[in-house]
């Protein structure tokens, strides 16, 4: 079973419990913060996966560090320690975020552009592209990428809408090479 499949199962279980207790947003925020901590501090994950520490000691560390998080999430973190799946936390956070967004009728989108987009531009892109993928809105992450030359490339899950000058030039180049 792939790691993503495992992470998705844990995320679905956590989401189900959080939804029943009406704490999806709170759990999502806490989980995203924990994932951020893990990404920025690799030593933390090393401690939680180190076989020299007992499972009880690891759970104690988790309880002390994350005593302010929602109890549902804290229980999940301790379960992950018991099952030796703590290294899946960032994947679980990503899958949980997608489940929460889907339940709210939103989707995550990455927009590549040559400059930072204004809020109005983000709202226009969200309104236009959300309809194409059957969502109400998009949560847009803007990535500055000078190689696009102009225009934007929008990625929503596995779907890519490429309206960049770079892609148009590449298409023109292919057309010219084929015709000659």
UniProtKB/TrEMBL annotation:
It is found in: Cell membrane; Membrane. Pfam families: OSCP. Keywords: ATP synthesis, Cell membrane, CF(1), Hydrogen ion transport, Ion transport, Membrane, Transport. InterPro entries: ATP_synth_OSCP/delta_N_sf (IPR026015), ATPase_OSCP/d_CS (IPR020781), ATPase_OSCP/dsu (IPR000711). It is a peripheral membrane protein. SUPFAM superfamilies: N-terminal domain of the delta subunit of the F1F0-ATP synthase, V-type ATPase subunit E-like. NCBIfam families: ATP_synt_delta, PRK05758.2-4. F(1)F(0) ATP synthase produces ATP from ADP in the presence of a proton or sodium gradient. F-type ATPases consist of two structural domains, F(1) containing the extramembraneous catalytic core and F(0) containing the membrane proton channel, linked together by a central stalk and a peripheral stalk. During catalysis, ATP synthesis in the catalytic domain of F(1) is coupled via a rotary mechanism of the central stalk subunits to proton translocation. This protein is part of the stalk that links CF(0) to CF(1). It either transmits conformational changes from CF(0) to CF(1) or is implicated in proton conduction. Belongs to the ATPase delta chain family. This is ATP synthase subunit delta. It comes from Ureibacillus suwonensis.
